[in-house]
Amino acid sequence: MKVPYKVPKIKHDFALYRRDLENSLQASLKSHPSPQHTFFKVTYPLFVLLESLSNSDYFVDPSQQILLNEYLEQGDKKNIAKIARKLMNKDEQSQFIKRGVLKNQFTPYLKELYSDTLLLLNNYYLNHYRGCYITLRCLLEDLYRHLYYKDHPQEFWAMMTDFDEHSLSLSPRFFREYLPRTSFLQPLSRMTHQFKPIKGDEDKNIFQWNDELYSKTSSYVHASKLAYMSRFSSNAEFAFNPDESEQFTKTAVNVITLSVVFLILAHFEYVLKFNDYETSLILETFEPKVKHNFRQFVNI
Questions:
Q1: 88, 94, 128, 252: which could form a disulfide with 123 (CB 3.0–4.6 Å)?
Q2: Is residue 132 domain-shared with residue 269, that is, in the same domain?
Q3: Distance, C-alpha 98 to centroid of its chain
């Protein structure tokens, strides 16, 4: 039996594709030489925040915390010292409890935000700009889901088992409209994205800013216009484009800053436990003037 001619052609064409891809990857990485780490710096505050929130050392056994509060109220110095030592204990059982607390406090979408940010870096350094915008849209949607499901465990478990978001009437628009109703984000409705008070109708609040960013990144998902398409015909066309890179970076800075703001306010009690160095790295997401305004706004 003769081997169909298409089998060796497939092997040959795959070899060409792979060689083209390898050459393209090397060329893409060389187009971002050291010390140009600008975009890595853009994403770094979000990486630090996500890693810090996921650090079990910041979590305390709630039963021990309750005991400590009671002993503090009673002035029982002996038991205060005993419980305090136990809170600092890093034995296996304590770590097990802390991991359980972490799972109850955070949804899987928090971990997915880390994955999104890593994928964002990869797309950027491979010069895949449409992929960058699509990843930003995914990051926003995972952020919305985390903020909603963290306070709605019943809907989360329903969605994880027998239902889907459509059957539960949940959508990106629903999540975006939910955000201003939360107690921890509601004060943002009176602030611009530079954390200045709204003074007139011409000022946009942070939720309007969020809607604009979602709309802009969504344009690249649907790509109904040529400007939003990649139009690649080979991997060699994944080339660094200074104008596209600069334009995208501005959008990425805004999305990552917004994500940092929402996460800090959503988990403020944990952020207060971060050390000064971690906090300073996270706040690098802001320009100096905006950083000052934000620190005043949250009092940190």
A1: 128
A2: yes
A3: 22
Q: Which residues constitute the domain of residue 72?
A: 60-105
Same domain, 40 and 181: yes
CB-CB contact of 196 with 209 (8 Å): no
Residue 197: phi, psi to the nearest 5?
Answer: -60, 140
Cα separation, 163 vs 155, in Å, equals 9
Q: Assign 206 a pLDDT band (cuts: 50, 70, 90).
A: very high
Structure tokens at 227: 């400007």
The amino acid at 168: L
Q: Check the CA dihedral 94-278-265-159 and report its sign.
A: negative
Mean pLDDT over all residues of the chain? 85
Can you give the pLDDT at residue 75? 79
Domains contained in the chain, number = 2
